[in-house]
Specification:
CATH superfamily: Acetylglutamate kinase-like
Largest sheet: 9 strands, mixed
Number of helices: 9
Distance between the termini: 36 Å
CATH topology: Carbamate kinase
Order of helices and strands: EHHEHHEEHEHEEEEHHEHE
Number of domains: 1
Radius of gyration: 17 Å
Number of strands: 11
Shape: globular
Amino acid sequence: MCAKTSVSPDLKYKRIVLKLSGEVLKGKGTDSIDAAILERMCEQVKEIHDLGAQLCVVIGGGNIFRGLNGAKRGVDRTTGDYMGMLATVINGLALMDCLEKMGVNTRVQSAIPMNQIAEPFIMRRAIRHLEKKRVVIFVAGTGNPYFSTDTTAALRASELHADILLKATKVDGIYDKDPKKNPDAVRYEEITFIDALKQRLNVMDSTAFSLCLDNNVPILVFNLDDPHAIRKAVSGEKIGTLVHN
């Protein structure tokens, strides 16, 4: 039987895929994973888990290695992408360890078989974990080169019929142009997938946008700096930019 969980009436979204970039873990120091940032991130995950949300996390690996950057150093793109996938596994294990110490049951599922440290990705098993109130952490991207972890998040959200895909970033939403270079940049509260694709907005790649468009999975882009940002997002508060049909 499935474990019974109480779901807070404050939750607007019940099944959530959260996309976290690896760069968020790095901080300002030289360590690839800043322990204080990791802990703060996991506290936010725990907060919405305790509200009864079914939560999956897709983690990037840019704090350790990014395939595109490897190509600039002479590494073959395919090889570089696989190196990046392995970096996401390191980050996923760090998230798992931190969450487990906070009393949150987790499972790590990998798109590349590595049985000693992670389960293989199996959709039905992932859904079963969610029903048993476990946080599922997806690592190793899609298992294929030339696909970003944004696309992985969109794919998993579509497969699991998630209510929303949350993309936590270092900016507070989607702008019509780069806000760091253009002080007159305007932030969208809402935008359609078609408009985002037409304007070639770079907050997510076009493959991820297209997947969510085709499968009607809304995307919420928001800033993770607020210590309660994820809770506000899943509660339906006005935060970030909502991309939908």
